[in-house]
Design a protein that fits this description.
610 residues, alpha/beta, Glutamine Phosphoribosylpyrophosphate, subunit 1, domain 1, Rossmann fold, eight-stranded antiparallel sheet, 26 strands, globular, binds 6-O-phosphono-alpha-D-glucopyranose
């Protein structure tokens, strides 16, 4: 994980690096540091803690430099401490790194034998020592870097500076994200675009095994291993800088929850024709003929995106009658999946950089499947390595707990299912138009669901001190029960479990007593009666039932202590509407427990390690 940034230009780099690091803090936040040139020497300041701790650490020093590097860390090798924080140094070589060096132990042992002295427990430090030792052997900065990286196995995005060649940054990428921002007379490197969105929207996305040499004059990119120059496209980013700010909200998570009507509107705009009753397949880079031939689909993802995959199975199988398997990416990659010829693997990933998902994607292609990536980040590794991509347009998601990215993933899966159903002729044009009409009303209905906020705060006040929480759902809303529980546990540290309600009698019912709150998802659908019985079972054992129900549903009244009513929508879109109150509940419980909502302990937004 970790976030890296680099600046070279005319302005003072220090505040730019700090501001950029704050935008990257979602990638890791246990220690941080910067490096900068001062009087032709490189200064390094680091500390354990967050960027605000680093800010206090350097306050009063009045540091000034026109070139610098920064890093925010999520510890993998060695605890969060000043020594293990980046930047790392060996001689005049100073660098920041995101990724994992798999053969660091062997390299470290060899270097130690040659007399190198290490000051940290990190894998990163070996890269510094390797580059330093090749420069001592007479190679220039760039050649020493190329030579050093020949020996390094693993994933890396690295920014490097060298005391001997001041006012130059080298940036190298392999399997960890790295983008270059092109300003006017100033240049940036970063793990993610929001880090420099205030200064430029012109971006070069570095590919694997490319090295960029950046000076005040410009950027030149070449292949890492044979120095061949590479001509790169400039991508224009459409996000505005304010999209990466809190805009008056107390937390990014709350802002992102409230952005959902806009995010869903952006995700559906231009993606289907009501008149022709068809999805715009170009937006998925798919062809109707390929869809017609499709006999099997695998949905693969991690975390919240895996919950979207579970909902996707219900949508695809019920609308298009094509069998689906859903896998957690870290399981899929090692389970030797049987993928029949012509299968489609849909990987779902907000960041497009989750290591396990990328590995599953690679494995799928190796096994002959086509891959569709449902992804939020333009130019991310998953998007670039897939056969086809559907971009969700939720805008940058900064809060570690995924909200708007999740509901736009569900929106993408809804459109895909309709497209497949059309190709397979399992839905009529009339039925497709009805599904589109409901989709068009979705942003407004999400807006309405958000109005349950005050009622949710009251419920949160009742329950924020509890130790355990149970979430029950059935059918297409069973994954939403999992999602509600995951959100609560990750940001409030309350132990929570999501369960298919029908399974309660096989175990979790043993946990029900007067202290156990149980949230039941009870939309008006063909299995409403079943979930009502499950609520009765909880109530008769003293459990406190919180029901999330469709408006005007009077049947829940006698079975629940608390009721949150949501606007009516069709069966396939209830998971979107019903996830809104669950995200809000987790948020308010976490705030009342004084937890760091946007940066929960031990978690990170983009998990680029296995
Ligand atoms: C991390 C994040 C989750 C996210 C998961 C998958 O665990 O904290 O919010 O759902 O990674 O991320 P992806 O970017 O692949 O959707």
């Amino acid at each position: 994980m970790c976030g890296i940034i680099g600046y070279i230009g005319k302005q003072n780099a220090i505040p730019i690096l700090i501001k950029g690091l704050k935008r990257l803090e979602y990638r890791g936040y246990d220690s941080a540091g910067i490096a900068f040139f001062m009087n032709n020497k490189i200064g390094v300041r680091r500390c354990a803690g967050k960027i605000k701790d680093l800010e206090s650490h350097i306050r009063g020093e009045r540091l000034k430099s026109i070139t610098g590097l920064g890093h925010t860390r999520w510890a993998t090798h060695g605890k969060p401490s000043e020594e293990n924080a980046h930047p790392h140094r060996a001689g005049g070589i100073v660098l920041v790194h995101n990724g994992i060096i798999e053969n660091y132990f062997e390299l470290k042992e060899e270097l130690k034998k040659k007399g190198h002295v290490f000051t940290s427990e990190t894998d990163t430090e070996v890269i510094c020592h390797l580059i330093h030792s090749y420069s001592q052997n007479g190679l220039n900065f760039e050649d020493a870097t190329r030579e050093a990286l020949k020996h390094v196995e693993g994933a890396y995005a690295i920014g490097i500076i060298n005391e001997k060649e001041p006012q130059k940054i080298l940036a190298v990428k392999k399997d960890s994200p790295l983008v270059i921002g092109l300003g006017k007379g100033e240049f940036f490197i970063a793990s993610d675009i929001p880090a420099f969105l205030n200064y430029t929207k012109d971006v070069i996305i570095l590919d694997n095994d490319e090295i960029a040499s950046i000076t005040h004059k410009g950027v030149s990119i070449s292949k890492l291993h044979n120095s061949k120059p590479v001509k790169k496209e400039i991508t224009k980013i459409t996000w505005s800088p304010s999209m990466a700010e809190k805009s008056g909200y107390r937390h990014f998570m709350l802002k992102e929850i409230h952005e959902q009507p806009r995010a869903i509107s952006d995700t559906i705009r231009g993606r289907f024709s009501l008149e022709r009753a068809e999805v715009n397949l170009g937006e998925f880079s798919l062809k109707e003929n390929d869809l017609k031939k499709l006999d099997k689909i695998f949905l693969v993802a991690c975390g919240t995106s895996w919950h979207a995959a579970l909902v996707g199975k219900y949508m695809i199988e019920e609308m298009a009658r094509v069998p689906c398997e859903v896998d957690i990416a870290s399981e899929f990659r090692y389970r030797k999946p049987l993928i029949p010829k012509g299968s489609l693997v849909i990987v779902i990933t907000q960041s497009g950089e989750t290591a396990d998902t990328l590995a599953a994607q690679k494995e799928s292609r190796k096994l002959g499947a086509k891959v569709l990536s449902i992804c939020n980040v333009v130019g991310s590794t998953s998007a670039r390595e897939a056969d086809s991509v559907f971009y969700t347009h939720s805008g940058p998601e900064i809060g570690v707990a995924s909200t708007k990215a999740f509901t736009t993933q569900l929106t993408g899966l809804y459109l895909f299912s309709i497209a497949l159903a059309k190709a397979k002729k399992t839905l009529s044009s009339h039925e497709i138009r009805e599904l589109f009409n409901e989709l068009l009303q979705l942003p407004e209905k999400v807006e309405k669901s958000l109005q349950s906020n005050n009622a949710i705060i009251k419920i949160a006040k009742q329950f924020f001190r509890v130790r355990d929480f149970l979430y029950l759902g059935r059918g297409i809303n069973y994954p939403i029960a999992l999602e509600g529980a995951l959100k609560l546990k990750e940001i409030s540290y309350i132990h929570a479990e999501g369960y298919p309600a029908g399974e309660m009698k096989h175990g979790p019912i043993a946990l029900i007593d007067n202290n156990m709150p149980v949230l039941a998802l009870a939309p008006d659908d063909n299995i409403l009666e079943k979930i009502l019985s499950n609520m009765e079972e909880v109530k008769s054992r003293g459990g406190k039932v919180i029901a999330v129900a469709t408006e005007d549903n009077t049947k829940v009244l006698s079975r629940a202590s608390y009721i949150l009513t949501m606007p009516k929508t069709n069966y396939y879109l209830t998971p979107i509407i019903f996830s809104i109150p669950l995200h809000l509940l987790a948020y308010h419980m976490a705030v009342l427990r004084k937890c760091n909502v946007d940066q929960p302990r031990n978690l990170a937004k983009s998990v680029t390690v296995e």
